[in-house]
Amino acid sequence: MNMLRSVVLGAALVSGGLSAQTVIQGAGATFPYPLYSKWISEYQKVDPKANINYQSIGSGGGIRQILEETVDFGATDAPMTPQERAKAKSPILHIPVTMGCVVVSYNVPGVSSGLKLTPELVAGIFMGQVTKWSDPKLASANPGVKLPATPITVAYRSDGSGTTAVFTEYLAKVSADWKAKVGAGKSVKFPIGLGGKGNEGVTGLVKTTPGAVGYVELAYAKQNGLAVAAIRNKNGKFIQPSPEGVTSAASGNEIPADLCMSITDGPGAKDYPISAFTYILVHENQKDGTKGKMVADFLWWAMHEGQKFAAALDYAPLPKDVTPKIEAKLKTLKFAGKVLITKK
Question: What is the pLDDT of residues 54-68, one digit of tens each?
Fold first, then answer.
């Protein structure tokens, strides 16, 4: 399986009509890659001059490359840490562009669907405390399901990952043991298991390993026919991952000035508990006017017209109360002191 994925579109790359310098380079999160790929394809119909190359290398890579200024935009599911922000040569904006959910996918012989997991079970499995699918704790949460004695093989992300940051943030909220022994972040030391690069790598491990369990973005699980578990939320309801569960988790949250917010382990009855925003990272002050304008226009389109493509790919559209704040943030993008978006 190709662990580094990218999408490149644009007539100029075929015809040679424009120079390579006009290509917009982006890199980062694998979590939103299926949607970004669709957006880039659709946006080229809107602006045939928009040549956008996005490499799906993980949130850690996206943050690193935007800090090194080797890309025109980065992408991450985990907001930059204060330490990362301090390394920036100029202010970097976080632009929420869509929402999705991290799912616990599994390959259990004889169990193709219907698995239920409590927060305690999720933490116990990924800490290596629950080692067989026939464990009494799993059986108790799944009455009537015939669980085999197959050993559990944990699959986790080996690269710096926003998906890992979201998943471990959730686990640190629901398990004091996890918080104390493993912690949260884009890169943590998993007690057990096999590492895979990108959502693609973990998906591949789960798909090909009987007894495996891993965490991936919903679209990857669905596109590869993986079973996904229903997770008991804070309200006590077992919730199957879906865009609707993500929308519920995002509703009613206070929106901070930097637009970075956590929506894991929400209190609502319909909230899917491992939900997250994902962000595009851009320098507030652009160094190239042509590129800066193209990036700004693409992001404006993505947060408006682009939202209609989200649900079909198992992402959730942005909440309506967030949109005006994102518009205001995008209108701060500048080149040589001049704003790049002048829409009303």
Answer: 999 999 999 999 999
